Amino acid sequence: MSIPKLIDIHTHVNFNAFKDDGDEVVKRTLENNIWMILVGSQIDTSRRAVEYAEKYPEGVYAAVGLHPIHLTEAYVDAKEISEEGVLGFKTRVESFSYEVYKELAQHLKTVAIGECGLDYYRTTEHGTHNMEQIKKLQADTFRQQIALAREVKKPLMIHCRNAYEDLIQILKEEHAQEIGGDIHFFAGSWDVAKQFLDLGFYLSFTGVVTFARDYDEVLKNVPMDRVMIETDAPYVTPVPHRGKRNEPLYVEYVAQKIAEIKNLPETEVFEQLVGNTRKLFRL
Ligand SMILES: [Zn+2]
């Protein structure tokens, strides 16, 4: 098996933003010796992630799961994701089907369960659910996906926004340290980071590190063997491509910035990032 230069551990070429040129995007990424994990957020995007992974003999993998914002009606505003050209969208409500996801999860190219977790930021009360009910629904659905990860013996790809305390509580109650995983788009303090590290989890960082200094302290403190990188494309495009659609190829800017913040040689950081990813996701 070949060794990639970098791996974008969380990207969405399986989303509609790439419906016209997804394969071209994947090919130019692979040509640059960068691998990727395509992450699903519902049944259809999870299935599309697996289909993409099946098409390529090496370098494209899938994560399958149900994102917490798709459990109830929520509106995502274009301004919130601060990208020009990305329209707001109404989420389609879905309830978690263990059997359907289990089938996708058992696929050889599926390397993680997610994105799953809690999101209290993009969740608003509406007709049928109050906030307490929404929180309970998110928690129950997350616990089912932890159970699935345990059954298929694959790690978790966790999404968490404005809900770190509750999420850590659930991970502890479910003994999720036995399963392991990554906290995608980590956006917490060093205090929060430490709690995830104590549970054996990895933290991944996006293109935000190229244009905001909010995570420098966390990054300086996190041991290099627990750091991973992602683009979360099509969102949060790194410098120097701000304003354009993000894509997995740009993960290199994230890696370079991390080497700069940690004051380590790029080659060493790149190797470590790839090693971490292959270890956790068994690539
Ligand atoms: Zn994502």
TrEMBL record:
Coiled coil: none annotated. One of its GO terms (molecular function) is DNA nuclease activity. Transmembrane segments: none annotated. Pfam families: TatD_DNase. A divalent metal cation 1 binds at H10, H12, E115, D232. A divalent metal cation 2 binds at H159, H184. One of its GO terms (cellular component) is cytosol. This is Hydrolase TatD. It comes from Candidatus Ryanbacteria bacterium RIFCSPHIGHO2_01_FULL_45_22. SUPFAM superfamilies: Metallo-dependent hydrolases. Keywords: Hydrolase, Metal-binding. The keyword Signal does not apply.
